[in-house]
Amino acid sequence: LPKFSFEEARVPKDASVKKLLIEALNKNEYLKRLEVQQIRDMVECMYQRSFQQGEFVLQQGQPGHHLFVLADGRLDVVQHSKLLTSIAGWTTFGELAILYNCTRTASVIAMSSTLTWALDREVFQNIMRRTAEIRHQQY
Ligand code: CMP
Q: What does the alpha-carbon distance between residue 123 and residue 80 come to, in Å, rounded to a whole number?
């Protein structure tokens, strides 16, 4: 199995954390159409990443390698040096480049020391492909 396969990428986590991650993914405008099992699989494979105050979590114009849920801390979303918004706890971000294979539409900067849960693009794609294959087998 490649290391980005869903089965290999699972990271154990508390039920309370899983619940918060599921809620954060489900309230995202672009992810809420995904199936319940796809969201569950994503949550299973998310892992912690922390950032220091002032650090770029991701940068506008660059390719996207992860989507994130903010667990703790505060983030600013900046486009062409202009502040678009601030993000508070248990919000999904960085989903656009992962879903649409575009470059990052904005930069996200840690305004405090920050804890996120990240999901690798390859694992996300693996989860989507897996669903398609299971569905194909049913016909
Ligand atoms: P992505 O383009 O992958 O990387 C930058 C992220 O910033 C983007 O995904 C969204 O999650 C977020 N983002 C972009 N524009 C806005 C906006 N206007 N308001 C809130 N979040 C945004």
A: 30
* CB of 21 closer than 6 angstroms to any ligand 1 atom: no
ipTM above 0.90, yes or no: yes
80 is a domain residue: yes
pLDDT-derived band at 29, boundaries 50, 70, 90: very high
Atom 20 in ligand 1: residue holding the nearest Cα: 85
The answer to whether residue 1 is domain-embedded is no
Distance CA 108, CA 92 (A): 12
Q: What is the chain's mean pLDDT, rounded?
A: 94
Q: Which domain holds residue 24?
A: 6-137
